[in-house]
Amino acid sequence: MTDEATLGFLKSFNFTGDIWGYAEGDCYFPGSPILVVEAPFAQAVVLETLILSVLNHDCAIASAASRMVTAADGRPLIEMGSRRTHERAAVASARAAYLAGFATTSNLQAGRECGVPTRGTSAHAFTLVHDSERQAFATQLAVQGAGTTLLVDTYDVDRAVREAVELAGPGLGAVRIDSGDLPVVARRVRALLDELGARQTRIVLTGDLDEHSIAALAACPVDGYGVGTALVTGSGAPTAALVYKLVARAVDPDGELLPVAKRSVGKPSRGGRKWAVRRFDQAGIAEAEVVSTVPPAPSRPDRPLLVPLVRDGTAVGAEPLAEARERHQRALAELPLYALQLSRGYPAIPTRFEPDDR
To answer: 321-334 and 87-99 are packed helices; what angle lies between their axes, rounded to 10 degrees?
Structure first.
């Protein structure tokens, strides 16, 4: 039960502190201090659950999306995971996926709220509600035009492709395949489309894809992918496992800070307010994440990572989603090539603590 004093505090709650964080779209690694909150203790504690809820979810989705974009190697990806997550998480997932490089989303609310480009295809139910597949195709083409994407695996794929091209002509935009042995079916459909003169018709694959199956399809004649379940569940890592720890407290009115840290077995923390930079080798490739309890020296060529997001309770770090999307591509380009591998292993670059006096 919450007492009256606490309810009164929450009713009049007003955050007055400062928040620093990694700019949205940047990469992070184990030990990265991606958010720093400087505020009175009660204010900082109230934010804990909200901050961890947002960052643990969105970072996990964006990380999975980034791996999928890497695996797709330039082929566009559609986010299609709304049916596999909470309705509000679906919007956040679509936004995170777009930030990490997905081209579009099927979630119209994400388009409305966040400006994510929207796109989708017809469902199997649309075909089944018609008397025949041919009738369904004709209806869709009458409304959408020949540039639309027709779903061709409700009944017989080969027959559907032939009917699709017969009705739309060689200018048919795309066909979508959602089932079967996707590499085999994709090659067969490509050969059939070419035989029918629809050489420019694209092939879009969907159906329980993840970054590994997308990478396995690299040699197939595929033009794009739709990803749902694996994306919105973090592709096996539905949370980024981020934590929110008190690392310093004021010891006098002048603001001198005393570092504090947990010493518990298995869950130790590092005391002191953190600063972080990305360090590069002579070729301009990132070689380490350097974390320190002192501000970075301006004389070094390192890239500072923490930027002001909130100052004296006022948000100062808002920016267009497109800017964060571009930043992510720049951050990836800084990393060594092996950092983009899909197999589990060591972090892409090490995190160094200076001085490491834990």
So the answer is: 50
Q: Are the CB atoms for 60 and 67 separated by under 8 Å?
A: no
**Among 85, 41, 30, 86, residue whose Cα is nearest residue 242:** 30
Show me where the domains of the chain are located.
14-34+242-354, 63-236
Cβ within 8 Å of residue 274, ≥6 positions away: 33, 36, 247, 291, 292, 293, 306
Residue of 136, 118, 119, 114 lying closest to 127 (CA atoms): 136
Its CATH architecture, for the domain 63-236, is Alpha-Beta Barrel (3.20)
pTM score, two decimals?
0.93
Mean pLDDT of successive 10-residue segments in the chain (358 residues)?
A: 87 95 96 96 95 97 97 97 96 98 98 96 95 97 97 97 98 97 97 98 97 97 97 94 94 82 85 95 95 86 95 96 98 94 85 74
Cβ(207)–Cβ(182) under 8 Å?
Answer: yes
In the CATH scheme, what architecture does the domain 14-34+242-354 have?
Answer: Alpha-Beta Barrel (3.20)
